[in-house]
Amino acid sequence: MTVPQKEKKPKPFSDRKPLSIPYPKWKQIWLTCRGLFWSFWLIVSLLTCNALQTFSLLVWPFSKRFFRRINQAMAHFWWTFFITVVEKKNKIKVTFWGQDVPEKEHVILISNHQCMADIPTVMTLARRKQRIGDLKFFVKDIIKYVPGVGWGMLFLDCLFVKRTWSADRESISQTFRNISRYKVPIWLVSYLEGTRFTAKKLISSRKFAAKAGHWMPEHVLLPRTKGFVATVQGLRDCVSAIYDLTIGYPDGVPTLWQIISGFVPSLHIHISRTAIVDIPTDPAEISNWVMEQFKKKDQLMSFFSQHGVFHGEPIKIQ
Questions:
Q1: What's the CATH code of the domain at 239?
Q2: Mean per-residue pLDDT over the chain, rounded
Q3: Pick from 57, 187, 215, 64: which is nearest to 131 by CA?
Q4: What's the whole-model pTM score?
Q5: Does 89 reside within a domain?
């Protein structure tokens, strides 16, 4: 008599390993060479853009609006080159789920954060919606001292944060005032978990959730809401919607090197759009709203961890 095999329980997302696909040795060597080739040209072109951005300071005293247009063009050029390498040259299959969104919309964009590859993943959508040159990020303050990406972001109204709201409040408010005053086109990306997801950080987040009486996360970290509340309040008149992206990697979480080199075969993005007029105005209610969004995000990632796709049918975004 044959004993029926017990169904194998899906491995929870928090235990998933980094991307590791058993490519043949020759292909690993080939992809590594590709990665070195493209990394060289990405770095050279980025430093060239830095030089041109530095020259754009000559325009600053005469026209701050023209200064921003020059740097928007630099960002559009380099990020388009970057995402062309990542997606087109490496032939990554990007699958979208949830809601399609309009082109050229001014938005605040929130997302789960698992790895540095999340940044080019967001860019795959920004390119399709003709906003890749208008991307702005909340990033660690130390990044602004890094040649290339950090120096470039200094010219793009990105927000450099020190992880303490008291230290960041005034600089963030000033950036919001500049965006509003000069009518800066914007896709402001914020990873509200404040750090990349790991099993160790999940334990800390769950302890905080239990202490604060929040829902118990399993596949994301609880969002840090104070900065998000200030962002919504500061940019409410400048944006028309909030996009909530949930990113999934069916083959494991990749590094930035792996996504540049072509080791990543596919990725998935779930999109949810909420009009800014539907976002509460009371700070406590804004905080509750984003907490509820991350609860839904946790449920989305729970389904993804078991099935390798999001629930429903994929949507086509050119």
A1: 3.40.1130
A2: 91
A3: 187
A4: 0.91
A5: yes
